[in-house]
Amino acid sequence: MSGHSRRGSPLYLERLGLTNYRNYETLNEDFSAQLNILSGPNAQGKTNLLEAIYYLATGKTYRPARDLQLIRWNHQAFSIQGKIRNKQGYVTLEVLYKIGEQNSKEIKVNGLKIYKTSELLGNLTAVLFAPEDLNIIKGSPLERRKILDNDISQVSPGYFLKLQQYNRVLNQRNYLLKKIRERGKGFDELEIWNEQFLELSESIILKRINVLEKLSPLTRLMQRKLTNGQENLEIRYLFSRQKELKLNHDLKKVLLEELEKYRGEEIKKGISLWGPHRDDLLISLNGNDLKVYGSQGQHRTAVLALKLSELEFFKAESGEFPVLLLDDVLSELDQERRGFLLNIIKEKKIQCFITTTEDIALENDRITIQKFLIRQGTLIKCRGGK
Ligand SMILES: Nc1ncnc2c1ncn2[C@@H]1O[C@H](COP(=O)(O)OP(=O)(O)OP(=O)(O)O)[C@@H](O)[C@H]1O
């Protein structure tokens, strides 16, 4: 990596460049290391910009879209470039996606092509908070697992690789289970795949529980701070959506028992019925399942607490706070929570991008605010910052 060491300085995205990305034809902009406010009416490109930053951090979009759909309409390729300052010094990241006979994606770190997305991870880390994050509480188990998987992948690229391997093994195992159901053949092969399935399941679940045992106390603390000590938030790992798993449990034994328990049924149904892809998180407030008993406001506060604890988690794991992307959520928070959030951003020196349709007044001194107006994929920097 190039550049001088910047021990203790905050990580931030200094410059972002876009070419034919969503509704941006070209963009080349410098950002503040602290607060960047992106304001504009609906459908102008505010979320698209946050999405591009998140893409640079994770190598994929977080929205339900394929790479192909990110290319500006009637064009053949998109690119995202970022100049990042992190503990390594300066790092440049670049993603280029092209339509061709074989659609192709190229990622470069400091100008050098990398061949695995896992090598991109960790250069720029990001936490996103968007309105749809309420689904973390209300939505399917997938929404809750995604939090863990996305966060862990950013700080442990090895975990990201394990997830990719797991998905391949899972597909293969499902294919075999179906084959056995239909033709009654393939039992020996299944045993071989089961070995890998067990090994990967163990390592993924172990890492998730490990991280959760760090994240849960942080979230609990944040929730207490946000509610003047009134609410105790707890997050627990639910194996197969029902069994609570902790670090001190004999995971190998639990997994082997599950394998035996579902053996017949899996063949009958032709699909894997257990594994990390079917686990869940139980989020409870003062002992009650938040999804079932919580009010809308409690859901919102819990998600905020979770997001804030993710920031601390990244700091503890990588030594740096991530970039915080707040998509249209500030207006959803009351004055007190908004102040709490802004104070954290200021005190911890976290670079933050806030999108908004309203002109938000942020009564906050001692923080550098750079405002931008977004109009149809064009950024207009407001002079004087504020
Ligand atoms: N591949 C694409 N090519 C061109 N334009 C696109 C593409 N994908 C999305 N858009 C356009 O981007 C715009 C949406 O941008 P974005 O989601 O960033 O809106 P926003 O400014 O965040 O709005 P809101 O306040 O409503 O959330 C829409 O006008 C949409 O048509």
Q: What is the strand arrangement across the widest sheet?
A: 2-1-4-5-6-7
CATH superfamily descriptor of the largest domain: P-loop containing nucleotide triphosphate hydrolases
- Going by helix content, strand content and strand pairing, the class is alpha+beta
CATH topology descriptor of the largest domain: Rossmann fold
Poorly predicted ranges: 1-6
- Beta-strand content: 15-25%
CATH architecture of the largest domain: 3-Layer(aba) Sandwich
Q: CATH class of the largest domain, anyone?
A: Alpha Beta
Q: Give the fraction of residues assigned to helices.
A: 40-55%
Instruction: Please indicate the count of domains.
Output: 2
Bound molecules: adenosine-5'-triphosphate
Number of helices: 10
If you average the pLDDT, what whole number results? 93
The backbone outline, from C-alpha atoms, is globular
Subcellular location: Cytoplasm
Main location: cytoplasm
Domain RecF/RecN/SMC N-terminal: 12-367
Organism: Thermanaerosceptrum fracticalcis
Keywords:
24% strand; 2 domains; 6-stranded antiparallel sheet; 10 helices; 42% helix; alpha+beta; disordered N terminus; 386 residues; Rossmann fold; single chain
Describe it for me?
- The chain has 2 domains: 1-125 and 324-386, Rossmann fold (3-Layer(aba) Sandwich); 132-319, RecF/RecN/SMC, N-terminal domain (Glutathione S-transferase Yfyf (Class Pi), Chain A, domain 2).
- Helix content is 42%, strand content 24%.
- The protein has helices spanning 46-58, 67-70, 135-138, 141-155, 157-183, 187-226, 251-269, 290-293, 296-318, 335-348; strands spanning 12-21, 24-30, 35-39, 77-86, 89-98, 104-109, 112-114, 126-129, 233-239, 243-245, 280-285, 288-289, 323-327, 352-356, 369-375, 378-381.
- Strands 2-1-4-5-6-7 form a 6-stranded antiparallel sheet. Strands 8-13-14-3-15-16 form a 6-stranded mixed sheet, sandwiched between helices. The protein has a 4-stranded antiparallel sheet with strand order 10-9-11-12.
- Helix 6 crosses helix 9.
- The longest helix is centred in the middle third of the chain and has 40 residues, at 187-226.
- The model is unreliable at 1-6 (pLDDT under 50).
- Adenosine-5'-triphosphate binds at residues 22-23, 40, 42-48, 69-73, 328, 355, 357.
- It is found in: Cytoplasm.
- ATP binds at residues 40-47.
- Belongs to the RecF family.
